[in-house]
Amino acid sequence: MMQKLAVALLTLTVALSVCISAVAQQRPVATAGAGRVASSSRHSSRSPSEPSPLIEKDVSEALRLIERHYIDGAKLDYNSVFKSSILGMLRTLDPHSNYYDRAEYEELKTDQRSEYFGIGASIQSYFLKGDGDTFITATFQNSPAARAGLRFGDRIVAVDGVKMTGRPSIEVRDKIRGPRGSLVKITIERAADGRQQTVEITRDVVPQPSIPDAYMIKPGVGYIDMTRGFNYSTSEELEDALDQLNARGMTSLVLDLRNNPGGFLDQAIRVAEVFLPAGQLILTQKGRNGLRDNVFKSANNAADPVPLVILINENTASASEIVAGAMQDHDRALIVGETSFGKGLVQSIIPLDDGAGLTLTSAKYYTPSGRLIQRDYADSGLYDYYTHGGLNHGSEASNSKQTGQEKRTDSGRPVFGGGGIAPDEPVAPRITTLAQRRLASAVFAFAREVVNGRIAAPANYRVRGAINFDHELKATDFPVTPDIIESFKKFVAANSFYTNFVPLIDRNRDFVALQLRFTFQHSGIRSLEFT
Q1: Does residue 379 carry a catalytic annotation?
Q2: Backbone angles phi, psi at 424, to 5 degrees
Q3: Class of domain 213-426
Q4: Which end of the chain is more exposed for a tag (fewer CB within 10 A), N or C?
């Protein structure tokens, strides 16, 4: 048995080695900004792409010893063993080459389609008493959840008979999602009257756009939320959002790329092309031995000239950095926020047999000025790379002067490679403290009582039906007055679970007011979030 498993693993390893050779194998010698291919001195005379009989023997022997001597050797999950072996192999290349089993690969493809199969509701975990619970915070227009009558504040008690109390919202979400057309039974406790009710909902396609919202911040200033990644439809969604904002009199634009993890390269190019005139360079891509070398320029003869501010932070990565880098190098936008993540590698998505898949680094990209913004990964582990990797990352160094290779923008301003996109105007992030996270549950519990008429408040705070998707949020909607704050204090003081929070309210008054208004808004009018 063990010999067959060892041979299967080695066969898979060799097959992947062939795939890597054909698509994006890293050079065996470590260089700045490139990964190392691990090799032992006893194998140093062999070609790095040629499997060693000694390694084959080591794999077989290691598996045999594990089965014979490991304390739980008789209960090994060999799928997990082989998966971790593949991941370990890929980690010797770079931090972004990855293996996905069938379920993970399906989820990856679903995310890229800007949709998923589920019920169409936002859910969130809150602590209203001892154990955390998951609640409905919004339903989407014409979604299965909306048609089934789910409302803000309904508590999810069970899914298909399995109790959800104490489970994180992401676990509840995964339980609710499933194949299109399948049924899911959700037991809820109604926020309006406390009744428990089981509703049967047919899962369907739920849009998950990469631009969930676009609106006017103030007269003339538009805002586009592009924080969710670059999927199949991102550039089309951007064009639609610009049309809507231009119809409202937009004269300048804030494009929010904070926390945008990246996505499809072609969509990043198309987004940049919206704002760059024909002929301007967007990026240069360089692959192995010139096989994937490409130069991408704008072909837009009617580029949008709107004055542009782009927001970035330390989680702005990959495709979103392509957009930010092109705008900065051409002096087309003011970049505001924190230094971005620093991912200058391009992955090819490769399907494998039985529904699994790989993302394999096949090229590096350079901004128009010639910057490679990839953060260093040659001498750090995966944890260090993602938490404080690179030349210019860390809790205190995020917006410090970069020290990578210097390049110049079109106007001659110095910009640097080697560690992400440094903002033109650094702005520290807003940090949510532990006290504020605790207060968020109390705010939700209070809003849940207010919108159901159990706590006195202005009449328009009460929700008597489904979300009004036609309402445009105004600056005067849901004002958080001193009376509302005082009522919140009384609610917290009277609730034994929150009593200790009372002193925190005045110290975090701005946060409480913002969170209250946000929660009231979500309860009765269209959601600004899609999850």
Answers
A1: no
A2: -70, -35
A3: alpha beta
A4: N
Determine the 3-state secondary structure of 230 from DSSP: strand
Q: Is residue 343 annotated as part of the catalytic site, yes or no?
A: yes
Q: What are 76's two structure tokens?
A: 């090994």
pLDDT tens string 171-200: 999 999 999 999 999 999 999 999 999 999
Note the pLDDT of residue 24: 27
CA angle 88, 19, 90 (to 5 degrees): 15
- The CATH architecture annotation of domain 116-207 reads Roll (2.30)
State which H helix or E strand residue 309 sits in.
strand 308-312
Calculate Rg over the CA atoms of the chain. 26
- Known catalytic membership, residue 395: no
3-state secondary structure of 43: helix
Residue 61: count other Cβ atoms within 10 Å of its Cβ.
Answer: 12
Residue boundaries of the structural domains of the chain: 2-93, 116-207, 213-426, 434-524
**Of residues 97, 235, 318, 527, which has the active-site annotation?**
318
Active-site hit among 343, 362, 369, 376? 343
For residues 425 and 399, give the distance between their C-alpha atoms in angstroms, rounded to a whole number. Answer: 9
Pairing state of beta strands 133-139 and 121-126? antiparallel
92/85 Cα distance (integer angstroms): 11
- Contact present, 413 and 429 (Cβ < 8 Å): no
Q: Cα–Cα distance between 36 and 27 in angstroms, integer?
A: 8
Given 94, 204, 256, 329, the catalytic residue: 329
> What letters, b where the CB count within 10 A reaches 16 and e where it falls short, cover 215-233?
eeeeeebbbbbbbbbbbbb
DSSP states of 248-282 = TT--EEEEE-TT---B-HHHHHHHHHHHS-TT-EE
Cut 0.90: pTM above it: no
- Max mean pLDDT range (23-32, 157-166, 450-459): 157-166
Handedness of CA 503, 509, 511, 516 (dihedral sign): positive
